[in-house]
Amino acid sequence: MSARVLIYGTGVCPYCISAERLLESKGVTAIEKIRIDLDPAQREQMMKKTGRRTVPQIYIGDTHVGGYDDLFALDQAGGLLPLLSGN
Fold first, then answer.
1. For the chain, first and last CA: distance in Å?
2. Which residue from 53, 56, 15 is spatially nearest to 33, judged by alpha carbons?
3. Cβ–Cβ under 8 Å, residues 50 and 43
4. How much is the average pLDDT of 61-82?
5. Host H or E run for residue 35
6. What are the b/e assignments for 52-64, b being 16+ CB within 10 Å?
7. 79 to each of 15, 70, 75, how far by Cα in Å?
8. Long-range contacts of 23-26 (CB under 8 A, 24+ apart)
9. How many C-beta neighbours within 10 Å does residue 38 have?
């Protein structure tokens, strides 16, 4: 997999953990995690970038996928693997 994966999340968010597990099941070995519970400035940055307040917020490459439900739906529609491979 070549696309960079970035997740804004918190340490106790079950949806963040589920998103990581789904990505790992697709062969993603490196996930950049930004803990917004540890750094309030990152929470502000996430909200400006995404327009959303909830976590996780997932980026694959330059594409804002959204939250866990969005990631799961993308996978079910067959769009996750092409995005992860950079296509």
1. 11
2. 56
3. no
4. 97
5. strand 31-35
6. eeebbbbbbeeee
7. 20, 11, 6
8. 23/71, 23/84, 26/1, 26/75, 26/80, 26/81, 26/84
9. 10
Q: Would the pLDDT of 31 be above 90? A: yes
> pLDDT tens across 42-58, in order?
999 999 999 999 999 99
Please report where in the chains the tokens 């909200």 appear, as a residue. 47
pTM above 0.90, yes or no: yes
Domains of the chain, CATH where assigned: 5-84 (3.40.30.10)
Query: In this model, does residue 1 exceed pLDDT 70?
Result: no
CA of residue 69 relative to chain centroid, distance: 11
Nearest to 9 by CA among 25, 1, 22, 20: 20
- Identify residue 27 by its one-letter amino acid code: G
